[in-house]
Design brief:
Elements (H helix, E strand, L loop, with lengths): L3 E6 L3 H12 L4 E7 L2 H11 L3 E5 L7 H11 L4 E6 L4 H9 L4 E4 L4 H12 L4 E3 L15 H11 L4 H8 L3 H15 L4 H9 L10
Parallel strand pairs: 1-2, 1-3, 3-4, 4-5, 5-6
């Protein structure tokens, strides 16, 4: 099986090593290079030709929009996924306008990041932060409990784990989950995540 080749560019060593550990546990991915600044990232991308360049929005020497444009100019086959501590939509828009294929908040969980890498590699554009980006008005239709279940669904929890977290039975969780799907007009978790990213696919159904 051909694995997704990933370059990690972040100026914090602990972040680079943490991301490397998470990504290399996946059988369909491998990290081909680590970079501490934008210039290192550009050199590594030229040498290793990664499928995905996971790039911090702000790095020394060459960062942000400039880094995105340089990477795409010199490595057009590499897709850029920006990983940033900023959830502000303006940062996401700047990154996507510069040519990045995706934008993920550092506050997002590992499951969200991994799914974003897979979706981007498959040709989908992704953007994920703290909360699912549902169409306006739809979230207000959910009850407080349904919103709690929604947040846990997006975070990747199983029905059993949600039941333990919320202190209710698994059958009750299943009922709330069905209501969430019905109100948001989706049939499964993959379609639910599509509301967040503007894509379909790349996620497994919750058991």
């Amino acid at each position: 099986m051909s694995r997704i080749r990933v370059l990690i560019a972040d100026d914090h060593q602990v972040v680079r090593e943490g991301l490397q550990s998470v990504i290399e546990r996946e059988p369909d991915m491998r990290v081909v290079a680590l970079a501490a600044d934008g210039e290192q990232a550009l050199r590594a991308a030229r040498e290793q030709a990664p499928h995905i360049a996971l790039v911090d929005m702000r790095m020394p020497k060459l960062g942000g929009v400039a880094a995105i444009k340089k990477l795409l100019e010199h490595c057009p086959e590499t897709k850029v996924l920006v990983l940033s501590m900023y959830d502000d939509a303006r940062y996401a828009k700047a990154a996507l306008d510069a040519g990045a294929g995706g934008y993920v908040s550092k506050h997002a969980g590992a499951a969200t990041l991994l799914a974003a890498i897979r979706a981007l590699h498959a040709g989908q554009r992704v953007s994920a932060g703290h909360e699912p980006a549902q169409p306006p008005g739809e979230r207000s239709e959910l009850s407080t409990r349904e919103q709690e279940v929604l947040r846990l669904l997006v975070a990747g929890h199983t029905s059993r784990a949600m039941a333990e977290t919320l202190g209710i039975s698994k059958s009750s969780v299943d009922t709330y989950r069905a209501r969430v799907f019905q109100k948001l007009g989706v049939d499964n978790r993959a379609e639910l995540m599509a509301l967040r990213w503007g894509t379909v696919g790349g996620m497994e159904e919750v058991e």
